[in-house]
From TrEMBL:
PROSITE patterns: ABC_TRANSPORTER_2
GO cellular component assignments: plasma membrane
Top-level lineage group: Bacteria
Protein name: ABC transporter ATP-binding protein
SUPFAM superfamilies (UniProt xref): P-loop containing nucleoside triphosphate hydrolases
GO molecular function terms listed in the Swiss-Prot or TrEMBL record: ATP binding; ATP hydrolysis activity
SMART domains: AAA
Keywords from the UniProt entry: ATP-binding, Nucleotide-binding, Transport
InterPro entries noted in UniProt: AAA+_ATPase, ABC_AA/LPS_Transport, ABC_transporter-like_ATP-bd, BCA_ABC_TP_C, P-loop_NTPase
Length: 250
């Protein structure tokens, strides 16, 4: 099977700091993969590189068989490589509908604004926030804004979607709602990479985990195996935490 995405030795340095260090892995169509790692591990930088928001210092990104290294975000979005942002930043002066329509127009291939608004209305309905279409973002709750962010991602017609901490700041019921939406998006054949700190979310969604530690790939494999990997536990909790886990009575 040809990989949908292939990263080859992807590297990004900021001055003396190597934020992403020779990372190589591939994603197959239809996977839901968790990208995890402690704070500062390089997750967001990796997503920024793959989606064109940062230029790599070295390495190659191959998407659907094409070398897309260094391409601009709008170019990649049109190919179907789409992301959400950790801090959601809608256009505050545009209604929810027009926030989504703007994406449909510029990234989703909609022919004109009328067509873009149709796509946007369908995406809002799909995410269960159809009634918010004419509301401005300042009058929308955080949980609804997260759904708005997912609606924008859908309007770009993604093939591969990176979700950057879409559950941050949500309560348990709101998280369950977002998880249902993510499963529904995946069921339509969209490949998903989810950056997430909550193990409940990762375990509930992902069969495969990719772990970064200090910029480098630490582990890549089935979720249960990776979650039990002592090196992963140590990277998350530090030596003392890992030792405590090892000595805990079973
Ligand atoms: N624009 C930048 N300039 C300088 N250093 C940066 C820049 N962006 C990220 N870094 C550094 O690169 C490293 C990786 O950061 P990154 O945000 O990718 O980690 P992360 O795994 O997403 O962390 P978190 O879980 O806290 O969001 C960190 O040490 C960070 O301080």
């Amino acid at each position: 099977m040809t990989a949908l995405l292939e990263l080859q030795g992807l590297t990004r340095r900021f001055g003396g700091l190597t934020a992403v260090d020779k990372v190589s892995f591939s994603l197959n169509e239809g996977e839901i993969v968790g990208l995890i790692g402690s704070n500062g591990a390089g997750k967001t930088t990796l997503v920024n590189l793959v989606t064109g928001h940062l230029q790599p210092t070295a390495g190659r990104i191959v998407f659907a068989g094409h070398d897309v290294t260094g391409k601009a975000p709008y170019h990649l979005a049109r190919l179907g490589l789409v992301r959400t942002f950790q801090v959601v930043q809608p256009f505050m002066q545009l209604t929810a509908l027009d926030n989504v329509a703007a994406v449909a127009l510029f990234a989703g291939g909609a022919a004109d604004m009328a067509a873009a608004r149709q796509v946007a209305a369908a995406a809002l309905e799909r995410l269960g926030i159809g009634e918010l279409a004419h509301r401005l973002p300042p009058h929308i709750t955080l949980a609804q804004r997260k759904r708005l962010e997912l609606a924008k991602a859908l309007a770009a017609k993604p093939k591969l979607l990176f979700l950057d901490e879409v559950n941050a700041g949500l309560n348990s019921a709101e998280i369950d709602g977002v998880l249902t939406m993510i499963r529904a998006i995946a069921a339509e054949g969209v490949t998903i990479v989810i950056i997430e700190h909550l193990m409940k979310v990762v375990r509930g969604l992902c069969r495969r985990l990719v772990v970064l530690h200090q910029g480098a790939l630490l582990a890549d494999g089935p979720t249960d195996d990776v979650a039990r990997d002592p090196a992963v536990i140590q990277a998350y909790l530090g030596t003392r935490g890992a030792a405590m886990l090892e000595t805990r009575p079973s």
